[in-house]
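Weekly structure sync, notes
Attendees: PL (lead), two postdocs, one rotation student
Agenda item 3: pending single-chain targets
PL asked that the sequence for the first pending target be pasted directly into the notes so everyone works from the same version. It is reproduced below exactly as submitted, 185 residues in total.
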Amino acid sequence: MPRAGLNAARVVERAAELMDAHPTDELSLAALAKDLGVQTPSLYKHVNGLGQLRSAVTYSAKTELARDLAAATVGLSGPCAARALADAYRDYARRHPALYPLTVRAPEAGDHADEQISAALLGIVHAALGTHRLNETDAVHAVRVFRATVHGFISLESSGAFALPESTDQSFALAVERALGVQTR
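Predicted structure, written out during the meeting:
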């Protein structure tokens, strides 16, 4: 019988919390079980191994990011929507340093839940960037340039690469403006 209060959702939630609390540690079922106060085999009542747990944490992170991005951009358009989108990505990355990298991965082939949430995320990006006005090829390029700029900046910032005294907020705003080819402030 599963421990009272322990279910698949709680196992995934706690795994995500542990990853964010200890971003340099590798997720393991043994560490998660110890944290939850159960034996490792007990986790198999809720998840089918480490691979399935990682997939579930990735899905959870992408779902949370999609909610954040949608909330940040609702009712906005043009450069204001794009800037809000970029800021929401950066805010999420700061709050969830270990989960954020999971959100930028392409969906696992055949994982329908991951494919759906990844498509939803991409849809939010397309809407915020206004790529509906572009042909398909230009829309793909616009999204790639935007994502490369935002994710590249976030990656460098989170690794401590920006030690110069100038404001990283100003640098981020400038990077987003240049990626979009417009002024967003």
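Discussion points:
- The mean pLDDT is 91.
- The radius of gyration is 19 Å.
Action: rotation student to compare against the earlier draft before next sync.
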